[in-house]
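Hi V.,

Quick status before I head out on leave. The structure for the redesign project is tokenized and pasted below; the design run finished overnight.
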């Protein structure tokens, strides 16, 4: 049987007959697949010995195909026997290269390449988890999309435990790549792999073995000692040492069962406290707000009010609205001006960029006041906040709006306001329903409510987007509210973000846009899914059901171009919350350069680079901020605080 089989295989390899089909392979291998494999190896040995006189090496491709089929379709395939036969062939190749082909460089090179291919094939054949190995490599290299990988972990948590052909887990592969990125000082790779580790740390299914922790920490300490053996060396290796410190904070096990907020923050490279120089700058930065000190600023004389939640600490926006003699409305959106108080290049402002946005925590968290701000509270909750009865530096966006909701005129001005009324949503809702004895407050709220109705008709967001955002807990986004005082604020701020973004787009100036891309088909699928769920569970559950599909709905991001699908706007940016969001400070800086004066070519080029840098900082850190909040909430549930 073996002799007959070998003749058939030889004829197949020589091209004297068609290659064997799957049915023929199954027939010849049905009695003993390992005898079949031995016969294949005998043929391969002849190919190697007689190369290049009789065969070309590409003939061996049939050998690979045949072995692959037998391995995949026979449970009795003997991997150890296969490895031994590969080793025997490799020895034969070494002998031929050494004894027979001493002066034939081309043939030596081809046989050497073939030997490498054979070893690679052996690794493939003897790795039963080959598909999982491929998936590990795909996750680490191909998508480069943290949100996609997060979804994979949610749907397939077991993927965190699989191992590649070397027996290395996904975690070990990430650590290995992280060290390589540090050695090469590849900033993007360092950030990517660090975020992957942080993401895995948030998953309850993920566990790091104690022996792995010790091994990694030992590697870290050894590298640190090597990079910082003296002061000069340490100074030149600052980037590498910082990356190693970040890794140590992620890996290092907690000693105490009780977890301090600072311990969790350290893991995600989040600063709870401010450096002394930032605190001192804020503390000593007291200013006199008068017309003489700020001749370039307009004093807003209209009645101004702020509308916020009862627990709001940072009052960063206020509104005014009067009716003009021509029947139009003059809507004023007044935003706390960060750069009116501090230079863009100052440590205070650059620290805010590093923090990305304020983090809002549960009040039960010990060691915080329920939030981690991007500015010291002496500024963001005190003299920079639009407190009632206090003059404050602002940037005012003034819109003349006709009876159809069209913007017929607009101004963006540096200003000073005095907040006449620091109100809550409930207070303004009461004024909407019942009126107020304060005539100025009553008229302003009445005008704001009328303008809001006009804007609602003029600017229509995607309904799916509105429902999802209304039920989303993302503290970095303005809540979508569709009634009363909350809608007044939402419509005014959205209008401002759109009009400011349009200014940059129309003039082809650089801007940090808020971008949201959702294919129409996905919107249709989500709507269909929710409607199906509503049919089964009842219409009263519709808003809760939208919360369920939040995970599959693309989130907004920051970039230098792009539209906003959810808001149905060609251009949109964040520019109304500088006290709590760094992206808004970037837009204010862009306005200083591009709107308040005529920019030079050099200034526009520098601005473009600045926006790219700040965009990358936000993208690198915003996921870690979300994971930090999730980790804190998990610790609260487990009563570890």
């Amino acid at each position: 049987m073996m002799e007959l089989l070998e003749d058939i295989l030889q004829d197949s390899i020589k091209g004297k007959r068609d290659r064997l089909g799957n049915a023929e392979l199954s027939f010849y291998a049905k009695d003993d697949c390992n005898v079949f494999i031995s016969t294949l190896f005998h043929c391969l040995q002849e190919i190697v010995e007689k190369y290049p006189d009789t065969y070309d090496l590409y003939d061996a491709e049939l050998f690979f195909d045949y072995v692959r089929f037998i391995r995949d379709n026979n449970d009795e395939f003997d991997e150890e026997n296969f490895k031994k036969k590969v080793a025997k062939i490799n020895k034969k190749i070494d002998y031929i290269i050494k004894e027979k082909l001493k002066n034939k460089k081309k043939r030596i090179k081809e046989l050497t390449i073939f030997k490498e291919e054979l070893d690679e094939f052996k690794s493939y054949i003897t790795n039963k988890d080959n598909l999982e190995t491929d998936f590990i490599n795909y996750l680490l290299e191909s998508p480069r999309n943290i949100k996609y990988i997060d979804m994979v972990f949610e749907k397939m948590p077991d993927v965190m435990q699989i191992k590649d052909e070397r027996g290395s887990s996904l975690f070990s592969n990430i650590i290995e790549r992280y060290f390589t990125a540090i050695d090469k000082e590849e900033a993007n790779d360092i950030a990517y792999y660090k975020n992957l580790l942080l993401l895995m740390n948030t998953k309850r299914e993920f566990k790091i073995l104690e022996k792995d922790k010790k091994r990694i920490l030992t590697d870290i300490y050894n590298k640190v000692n090597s990079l910082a053996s003296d002061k000069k060396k340490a100074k030149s290796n600052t980037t590498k040492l910082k990356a190693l410190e970040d890794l140590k904070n992620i890996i290092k096990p907690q000693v105490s069962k009780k977890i301090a907020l600072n311990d969790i923050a350290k893991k995600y490279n989040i600063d709870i406290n401010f450096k002394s120089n930032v605190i001192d700058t804020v503390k000593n930065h007291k200013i006199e707000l008068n017309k003489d000190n700020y001749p370039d600023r307009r004093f807003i004389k209209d009645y101004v009010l702020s509308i916020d939640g009862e627990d709001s600490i940072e009052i960063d926006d206020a509104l005014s609205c009067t009716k003009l003699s021509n029947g139009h409305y003059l809507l004023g959106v007044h935003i706390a001006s960060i750069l009116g108080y501090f230079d863009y290049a100052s440590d205070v402002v650059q620290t805010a960029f590093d923090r990305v946005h304020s983090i809002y925590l549960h009040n039960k968290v010990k060691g915080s006041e329920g939030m981690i701000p991007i500015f010291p509270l002496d500024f963001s909750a005190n003299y920079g906040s639009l407190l009632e009865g206090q003059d404050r530096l602002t940037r005012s966006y003034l819109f003349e709006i006709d009876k159809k909701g069209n913007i017929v005129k607009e101004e963006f001005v540096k200003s000073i306001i005095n907040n006449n009324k620091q109100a809550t949503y409930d207070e303004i809702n009461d004024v909407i329903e019942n009126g107020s004895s304060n005539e100025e407050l009553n008229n302003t709220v009445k005008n704001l409510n009328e303008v809001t109705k006009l804007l609602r008709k003029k600017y229509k967001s995607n309904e799916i987007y509105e429902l999802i955002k209304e039920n989303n807990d993302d503290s970095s986004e303005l809540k979508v509210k569709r009634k009363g005082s909350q809608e007044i604020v939402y419509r005014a701020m959205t209008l401002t973000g759109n009009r400011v973004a349009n200014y940059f787009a129309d003039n082809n100036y650089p801007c940090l846009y808020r971008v949201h891309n959702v294919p129409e088909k996905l919107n249709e699928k989500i709507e269909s899914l929710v409607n199906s769920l509503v049919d089964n569970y009842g219409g009263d559950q519709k808003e809760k059901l939208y919360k369920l599909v939040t995970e599959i709905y693309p989130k907004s991001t920051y970039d230098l171009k792009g539209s906003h699908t959810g808001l149905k706007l060609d251009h949109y940016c964040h520019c109304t919350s500088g006290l709590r969001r760094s992206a808004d400070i970037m837009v204010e800086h862009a306005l200083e350069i591009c709107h308040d004066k005529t920019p030079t070519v050099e200034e526009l080029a520098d601005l473009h680079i600045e926006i790219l840098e700040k965009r990358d900082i936000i993208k690198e850190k915003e996921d870690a901020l979300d994971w930090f909040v999730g980790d804190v909430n998990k610790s609260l549930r487990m009563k570890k605080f």
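Above is the designed sequence. Residues 253-258 have pLDDT under 50 and may be disordered.

G. will cover questions while I'm gone.

Best,
W.
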